[in-house]
Write a structure and sequence with these properties.
single chain; 120 residues; alpha/beta; Spore Coat Polysaccharide Biosynthesis Protein SpsA, Chain A; globular; two-stranded antiparallel sheet
Length: 120
């Protein structure tokens, strides 16, 4: 067992494909809630961190039982930004704030594997 395990989810307000998808209701639950609530229920991690560029998203994620340590700058996420850039930025921010961890699990709320069914 690791000393500190954290789950990390991205919730981008500026999505051009489906704007607001992470806070949309899907199957009676917020899309971001499917992955973050599952991580919280699993009991394996110390915390679930959501990284977002939107104040509304931060509020919604907090209601889902997650930690939203900051709202990132709007110029950081783009359609071309790789997930690895977001992860590296957040790791740097957490380490700078003295928030360490041994394991970081990245949750992708828009991936169909977190939904209660498989879309066709």
């Amino acid at each position: 067992m690791y000393e500190s395990e954290s789950f990390f989810a991205l919730a981008r307000e500026g999505s051009k494909g489906v704007p607001g998808k992470d806070v949309a209701l899907v199957g009676g639950r917020l899309l971001v809630g499917w992955s973050t609530e599952g991580a919280n229920r699993g009991g394996h991690g110390d915390r679930v961190i959501v990284r977002t560029d939107g104040l509304e998203f931060a509020e919604v994620a907090s209601r889902c039982g997650t930690v939203v340590p900051y709202v990132r700058l709007a110029d950081l996420p783009t359609d071309a930004s790789p997930t690895s850039a977001a992860v590296r930025h957040t790791i740097g921010w957490l380490e700078g704030a003295g928030e360490g961890f041994d394991v970081l699990v990245v949750l992708r709320s828009a991936e169909d594997t977190t939904l209660p069914w498989r879309p066709v």
